[in-house]
Amino acid sequence: MNITSLFNTGKKEKLFLDWMKNNFDVIAVIVVTIAGIFCRYKMIPYSHSDFTSYVCAWYDQLKADGGLLGLKYYTGNYNYPYPTILALLTYIPINKYYTIKGVGILFDLAMAVVSGLLCRKVYGNKYSFSAAYICVFMSPLVMLNGAYWGQCDSIYTCFILLALLFMLSEKYPLSFLIYGVAVAFKIQALFIFPLFVIIYLINKKYSILNFLLIPIGFLVTSLPGMIFSQKGIKGIYNILFSQIDEGELLSANFPNIYYWFPAQEYDLYLKVGLMFVLFTFVFICLYLQKNVNKLDNDAILGLGVWTVLCCAYLIPKMHERYGFVAEVLLLIWVMGHKKWLWYAILVITIILFSYFTVLHGYNLYLFQNMGMINIIAFVVFSLFLFSDIKKKAKIYEVS
Asked: In terms of pTM, does the model score above 0.85?
């Protein structure tokens, strides 16, 4: 036997290397999942005043009052589904940091999976699932939001993405029901509601009666909390009102145009801002109805990004986390628009600065400057998006 043959690649070794090459995307997903969970595990012990003063305080109250029975005395401003989850967690004899943030981590995983499925549905190439999954699961915003900060934005975002996936699969009743679940978890899910209206007006593929399924999904998800709290629908109303009425702030750490306006004119700019957003959506609906006969899946995904960002940038009282859905959708959308990767990086970087400001108490950049950059980049993105949608519509007409 020639000794040099020992250093040549053997048949089994070649088969193994070929298998690795053919299953690179699967291996990458597994490795990234392990790395992402490890990173999140290391973040769990961190505590911020938002987490301890609100989420942990709700958990402690629910536990002291008997878990699910404690919902009767719940006074937080998150709708029933989330405190119901907290109440169930009180029965698990594990440190509350790990159980509460563990739920967020599970939904990070679920959200990444649905992101991958959504990306594959829209763009359909071999690596679309793994690319979207990896980008979403390892996004610094996603990791900071849940495992580090202890927020629950991945929960309602996961349901929104799932609703969009069913929408693109033309399973409309299921899409609207699941969207109702998203709204039940967080009222900010309404930011993407205009997208469902736009799809209805342009594609004309489902009945307006489907919109009635949204409150059904909302109420069914809220039902356990309504029963145990003994407060019924009135309790939901009080919770939602408390979310909206959070003080006279034009912007709450979200870098948008309102850092350029005087805070003492709160009432004026609140009304003007809401009317301007309404006008913007009406104008866009009219523009699309005139110029577009069909929205393809890519256009729907882009409009999902646009509607949420439009609300976050132009409505007053926005917190730094209220663009979370758009930031996740943007990571999926750029899979089909590689030249716009700069925009995803810009949006996420600016919001990261806002996160750091809230989490650590120092300003990396002036919010005025970040808000102006956001608006200018958003205008550029909007011009491209609607131009691209119109161009594709003409191609459909010709074909």
From this structure: yes
CA distance 288 to 393: 10
Q: Which residues on neighbouring strands pair with residue 107, listed in sequence order?
A: none
User: Which helix (H) or strand (E) is 343 found in, with range?
Assistant: helix 341-360
Alpha helices in 147-212 (DSSP H): 153-168, 172-185, 193-203
Which structure tokens are listed for 127? 């690596």
HSE, side-chain direction, 13 A CA sphere, residue 132: 31
Write a three-state SS string for 298-341.
HHHHHHHHHHHHHHHHHCCCEECCCCHHHHHHHHHHHHHCHHHH
Please return the burial class of 305, using the count of CB atoms within 10 Å of its CB with bins 0-12, 13-18 and 19+: buried
Alpha-carbon gap, residue 48 to 358, rounded angstroms: 9
Q: CA separation (Å) from 133 to 33, 118, 337, 387?
A: 9, 10, 17, 28
383, burial (CB in 10 Å: exposed 0-12, middle 13-18, buried 19+): exposed
Residue at 359: amino acid letter: L
pLDDT digits (tens, 9 = 90+) for 241-291: 776 666 667 888 888 888 888 777 788 888 888 999 999 999 999 999 999
Angle between helices 232-244 and 213-229 (to 10 degrees): 110
